[in-house]
Automatic annotation (TrEMBL):
Organism from which the protein derives: Sinocyclocheilus rhinocerous
Gene name tied to this protein: LOC107719476
Low complexity composition-biased segments: 631-646
Protein name as it appears in the record: BTB/POZ domain-containing protein KCTD3-like
Gene Ontology biological process terms from the UniProt entry: protein homooligomerization
Gene3D superfamilies associated with the record: Potassium Channel Kv1.1, Chain A (3.30.710.10), YVTN repeat-like/Quinoprotein amine dehydrogenase (2.130.10.10)
Length: 658
C-alpha cells in the first residue's frame, strides 16, 4: 500500500536491493501520520494538522498527488488579486532605457564600482500586456544596486514618485482615469539615493501649476520641473559638496542637509542655490515654513524659509539658535507640533526632541514667553540608547531608540488644543518594531524603508514593520499602542524593497475625505497599493464580545420599530432621572426669548470680535538667559484664564440642582 506512487520515496526505498536491511524512522510523527493514512486509504484527514507543514513533508517524501491537493487548499486562501485591502497595481516600466555606450565610457569619481570590473550584458525578455519588450540589462559585478527594483517611493498630495537606480517615474491620480504615469526622467549615470516631490509649487519658473521632483546621489542633486501635460524640463544640477542625508521641500524651496553641517537651499522664486555651513546636524524637522535643525552641540536652530532671510553683511542664511539642551547632549531626534492657530492659543509652539543619552524632552513656547524663547516642559529618561525617532501629535508622544527600535509612548493631555500638565502626560505603551537590515545595503535603503510613524498629527499614526530585508510581507501597527492593524503580502509574491504611506484625495465630491494608502515598491519594478483607511476602520470597531458588553445595560426588547430604539435598563433609570432633574433648569433657560442666560460684558465683547488667526513665531532666548535649567516638575504650562461670573448667575443652577 505504500508503493502505489511510482516516484515516491517509499517506491525507491523498496527497489533498493538492501531493502530488508534498512530501518525507516519518520522525521515528524505528527505530520507523517496523515501521509501514512493517505498512502493506505487514499483519503486525507486534516484535523489538527497545519496544511503548510504537511505539504512540505509530502514534498520531502515525493507524494505528488497529496502535494497537489494541499496546494489547491492553500490557493483557496491566497489570490493573485490580493485581499480586500489591495487597491491597485502599477506594472514595471515597459522599457528600461540604458545607454550602454555611456556605461562603457563611464569614469565617475563618485562611483568607482563602475571602474575596474568586468561588464556583462544579458538579454532579457519581458512579457507585459501581450507585448514583448527586448531590454538590454546591465549588470556590474560587485554593484549593490539592482536597476530593476524600486528603491524609494515618495508622495505629495495626489502624486507619487518611484525612484529606480538610474531614473525616476511620477504618477498622478484622477477621479475619472485613476493612476497614470505622467513623467519619466532621462537616464542618470549615478545611482539615486534620495528623492523629493512637490506637487504644489507656488512661484515656480513656469507658473504656479508646476510640479517639482528632485533626486540626489552622493553630493549631487538634480531638479526637474513638470508641467500639467507631463512635459518635464531639467532646472539644474547642484552640488552640496558633501553627501546628502536629507532631501525635501519646504514650500517652493528645495532643502538638502548633511550630517557634516551643511545646508543647501534652492529658492524657486530667485532661482538661486545657496550652501550654508552650520554645526554638524544630527536631526531635522519642518513645521510650516520653519526648518529646525538639531545639532551635536545640544542646540536647536531654526530658519524661516518663508522670509528666506539673508544676513546683510555676507548674504548667508539667517540661522538662529532657538534652544540649548541643559545636559549638552546631541539632539538626535526632533518633532515640532503647531497647535491650531486660533485667538485662544495664539503663538503656541511645542517641540519634542530626543538626545544621544536617551532623554526625551518637551519644550513649549506660548504667547506669554514669546520674547524669552521656549521653556522646558517635561523630561522623560526611559531610554538607555540614543533616541532615533520622535513624534509629538495631538494625542500622543512617541519615541524610538536605537535598541531594536524600542518604542515608548505617552498620552498627551490638552486644554483647548494646548498641552497641559493636569493630569499631564502618562505612560501608554512599550514595544519594539524589530526591523533587520542587510549588512551591505545601498544608501537608499534607509530612505525607502523608514518605519515611520506615518500619518497626520491630528489622526492615528502607524508604523510599518518590515522584519527581514528580503520578504514579501509587511505589518501595519498603531504607533500609540503597537497593536497590529493588518498585514499586507505582495500579490505576485515578489520581494518588497521600499514603502511609504500617503493620503490621497481620490474624489472631489462633497463629503468625501482623503484616504490613506500604503505604497510598496518591489524587486521586479512594480508598485502595489493598499487601502489603510479600510483596514483602520475595520480594526477600530468593537468586537462581538465588546459589543455585547456595551449592550448589557440596554433593553432592546421594548422596541416596536424595525430599527430597535435603545431603551435604558431599570438599573440605570435612577441615574437618568437625577441627571434629568439637574438639567431641567437649563431646558427652561433655553426657552427664553433672549436665548437663555444673560451674557456678561466680557463674553459679549469676546463673541462680537473676530480676530484673524495669528502666525506662529519662534523667539530665540535672550542673550545671557538660561535656556532651560528647570526640570519637568517645575516648568508647567500656565493655567488657563477662567472667566468669573456674578453670584447671581452661579446661584440659579445650584438652586435648581438642590
Amino acid at each position: 500500500t505504500l508503493t502505489w506512487i511510482p516516484d515516491s520515496f517509499f517506491s525507491s526505498f523498496e527497489r533498493d536491493p538492501f531493502f530488508f536491511y534498512k530501518i525507516f524512522i519518520d522525521r515528524d510523527p505528527t505530520a507523517f501520520a496523515p501521509i501514512l493514512n493517505f498512502l493506505r486509504t487514499k483519503e486525507l484527514d486534516l484535523r489538527g494538522v497545519n496544511i503548510s507543514i504537511l505539504r512540505h513533508e509530502a514534498e520531502f517524501y515525493g507524494i505528488t498527488p497529496l502535494v497537489r491537493r494541499l496546494l489547491l487548499c492553500e490557493e483557496l486562501e491566497r489570490s493573485s488579486c490580493g485581499s480586500v485591502l489591495f487597491h491597485g497595481y502599477f506594472p514595471p516600466p515597459g522599457r528600461l532605457r540604458i545607454d550602454l555606450w555611456k556605461i562603457e565610457k563611464k569614469q565617475s569619481p563618485f562611483h568607482p564600482l563602475f571602474n575596474g570590473y568586468r561588464q556583462h550584458f544579458s538579454l532579457l525578455v519581458y512579457q507585459h500586456t501581450e507585448v514583448l519588450f527586448w531590454i538590454f540589462f546591465y549588470i556590474t559585478i560587485g554593484s549593490p544596486v539592482d536597476p530593476r527594483k524600486v528603491l524609494i517611493v515618495a508622495g505629495h498630495h495626489n502624486w507619487i514618485v518611484a525612484a529606480y537606480a538610474h531614473f525616476v517615474i511620477c504618477y498622478r491620480i484622477k477621479e475619472s482615469s485613476g493612476w497614470q504615469q505622467v513623467f519619466s526622467s532621462p537616464y542618470l549615470d549615478w545611482a539615486i539615493e534620495r528623492v523629493a516631490l512637490n506637487a504644489k509649487v507656488v512661484g515656480g519658473p513656469h507658473g504656479d501649476k508646476d510640479k517639482m521632483v528632485a533626486a540626489s546621489s552622493e553630493s549631487s542633486i538634480i531638479l526637474w520641473s513638470i508641467q500639467d501635460g507631463g512635459n518635464g524640463s531639467e532646472i539644474g544640477v547642484f552640488s552640496l559638496g558633501v553627501p546628502v542625508d536629507s532631501l525635501f521641500f519646504i514650500g517652493s524651496q528645495l532643502v538638502a542637509t548633511s550630517h557634516t553641517g551643511k545646508v543647501g537651499v534652492w529658492n524657486a522664486v530667485t532661482q538661486h542655490w545657496q550652501v550654508q555651513d552650520v554645526v554638524p546636524i544630527t536631526s531635522c524637522d519642518t513645521a510650516g515654513s520653519f526648518l529646525l535643525l538639531g545639532c551635536n552641540n545640544g542646540s536647536i536652530y531654526y530658519i524661516d524659509m518663508q522670509k528666506f532671510p539673508l544676513r546683510m553683511k555676507d548674504n548667508d542664511l539667517l540661522v538662529t539658535e532657538l534652544y540649548h539642551d541643559p545636559s549638552n547632549d546631541a539632539i538626535t531626534a526632533l518633532s515640532v507640533y503647531l497647535t491650531p492657530k486660533t485667538s485662544v492659543s495664539g503663538n503656541w509652539i511645542e517641540i519634542a526632541y530626543g538626545t544621544s543619552s536617551g532623554a526625551v524632552r518637551v519644550i513649549v513656547q506660548h504667547p506669554e514667553t514669546v520674547g524669552s524663547g521656549p521653556q522646558l516642559f517635561q523630561t522623560f529618561t526611559v531610554h538607555r540608547s540614543p533616541v532615533t525617532k520622535i513624534m509629538l501629535s495631538e494625542k500622543h508622544l512617541v519615541s524610538v531608540c536605537a535598541d531594536n527600535n524600542h518604542v515608548r509612548t505617552w498620552t498627551v493631555t490638552r486644554f483647548r488644543g494646548m498641552i497641559s500638565t493636569q493630569p499631564g502626560s502618562t505612560p501608554l505603551a512599550s514595544f519594539k518594531i524589530i526591523s533587520l537590515e542587510e549588512t551591505e545595503s545601498h544608501s537608499s535603503y534607509s530612505s525607502g524603508n523608514d518605519i515611520g510613524p506615518f500619518g497626520e498629527r491630528d489622526d492615528q499614526q502607524v508604523f510599518i514593520q518590515k522584519v527581514i530585508p528580503i520578504t514579501n510581507k509587511l505589518f501595519v501597527r498603531l504607533s500609540s499602542t503597537g497593536k497590529r492593524i493588518c498585514e499586507v503580502q505582495a500579490v505576485d509574491g515578489t520581494t518588497i524593497t521600499c514603502f511609504t504611506v500617503r493620503e490621497c484625495e481620490g474624489s472631489s465630491r462633497m463629503g468625501s475625505r482623503p484616504r490613506r494608502y500604503l505604497f510598496t515598491g518591489h524587486a521586479n519594478g512594480s508598485i502595489q497599493m493598499w487601502d489603510l483607511t479600510t483596514a483602520m476602520d475595520t480594526v477600530g470597531g468593537p468586537t462581538e464580545e465588546e459589543l455585547l458588553k456595551l449592550l448589557d445595560q440596554c433593553d432592546l426588547s421594548t422596541s416596536r420599530c424595525a430599527t430597535p430604539n435603545i431603551s435604558p435598563a431599570p438599573s440605570v433609570l435612577q441615574h437618568s432621572r437625577l441627571r434629568e432633574s439637574c438639567s431641567r433648569y437649563y431646558r427652561a433657560a433655553d426657552s427664553r426669548p433672549d436665548g437663555g442666560r444673560r451674557r456678561g460684558a466680557f463674553e459679549a465683547n469676546f463673541l462680537s470680535r473676530k480676530k484673524a488667526p495669528s502666525v506662529p513665531q519662534l523667539s530665540p532666548p535672550p542673550a545671557g538667559a538660561d535656556g532651560g535649567g528647570s526640570d519637568s516638575s517645575s516648568t508647567a504650562s500656565p493655567s488657563p484664564t477662567k472667566v468669573s461670573t456674578s453670584p447671581r448667575h452661579r446661584k440659579a443652577p445650584d438652586a435648581a440642582c438642590e
